[in-house]
Structure formats: structure tokens, C-alpha cells
Design brief:
89 residues, mainly alpha, 3 helices
Length: 89
């Protein structure tokens, strides 16, 4: 097992992690910007106003994208376990 091989596995792991977390993070970002814009326009500075829409939006996003996330994780794990004999060499 060479250093390049390990770096490749780590890069793939980071890519899968970013792909899985991206939908929820993007929805949270968009909702945060929209609510902040609404707060700036109306001058309502309530701290809890940001949290409820973000939580609901992220939960809905996770429910929608959960099958895709699970499929991605299962295929990554399956490839990792299937190639264990190659890793031992």
C-alpha cells in the first residue's frame, strides 16, 4: 500500500462526505440569507426567527435526499470492503 493509494482513498472519502452534506448545507445557506434579508428589510431582529425555518428546511432536504445519500454511502462502503484484498498487498 503506497502513500498515493492512501491519499486516493482519503480524497474519495472527502468527496463522498462533501456530496452527502452539500444539499443540507446549501438549503441552510439559502434559507439563512433569505431570512436575514427579510430581517434587514423589516428591521425585525429576532434571533429565533432564523432557526425555525433553517431546521425545517434542512429536515425536509434530508428526507428528500436520504435515499440518494444512503445509496452513495452504501456503494462507497461496498467498494471499500470489496477491495480489501487489494489493500493488503
Amino acid at each position: 500500500m503506497t502513500a498515493d493509494f492512501i491519499v486516493g482513498i482519503m480524497a474519495e472519502t472527502i468527496k463522498v462526505t462533501l456530496l452527502i452534506s452539500a444539499p443540507a448545507l446549501l438549503v441552510g445557506l439559502v434559507i439563512g440569507v433569505v431570512v436575514s434579508l427579510f430581517q434587514a428589510i423589516t428591521q425585525i431582529q429576532e434571533m429565533t426567527l432564523v432557526f425555525v425555518p433553517k431546521i425545517v428546511g434542512v429536515m425536509i432536504t434530508v428526507v428528500i435526499f436520504l435515499p440518494w445519500m444512503i445509496n452513495l454511502l452504501v456503494s462507497f462502503t461496498h467498494n471499500l470492503f470489496a477491495n480489501i484484498p487489494l489493500y493488503i498487498r
